[in-house]
Amino acid sequence: HASGGSVEMARNVAEGTLGLAFVALNAGGAPAGVELTPLASEPMAVICPAGHRLTSRRSVVLTDLADEPLAETPPGWGTRIISERAFAAAGLERTPAFEINDISTILDLVRNDLAVSLLPAAFVTGDPSLAAVPLRGGGLVFEIALARPSARRPGAAAEALGELIVSRSRARPR
Question: What is the pTM of this model?
Answer without folding.
Answer: 0.77
